[in-house]
Design brief:
Layout (H helix, E strand, L loop, with lengths): L2 E5 L2 E5 L6 H5 L22 H4 L3 E3 L5 E10 L4 E7 L8 E5 L5 E5 L4 E4 L14
Parallel strand pairs: 3-8
Antiparallel strand pairs: 1-2, 3-4, 4-5, 5-6, 7-8
Amino acid sequence: MVRCWQHGKRVLVQLNGVADVDAAASLGGQTVWVDATEVELGEDEYLWEDLIGCAVFDADDCLLGSVVALEEYGAQDILTVRSADNAEQPGEWMIPFTEEIVTAVDLEARRVSVALPEGMDACFTPSC
């Protein structure tokens, strides 16, 4: 790989030995793997795989659960959080991964803080 960069919701990749658009088109639909150590991240950028397993806490510092997945749904990415084992109502939260809702990510502490919109906690109970 020569380089890669984000272009909207897509990642563009320039590969060794692929000299023109026609050669690149023949590779359409193929999976390209890049070692995580090769990815340059800006401040407040994260690799999705690094968020898996992080504990998620609400604004009252109550444990909601842990991150089990991140999904792309067009307008925004979604953080999927499985409720804590001792939650009164077990289930999964689908939390928009936006600056307004995800207020802090501390990968060293394996912790994500969220400010849930009013009413979003109606389906599952945080564990405090």
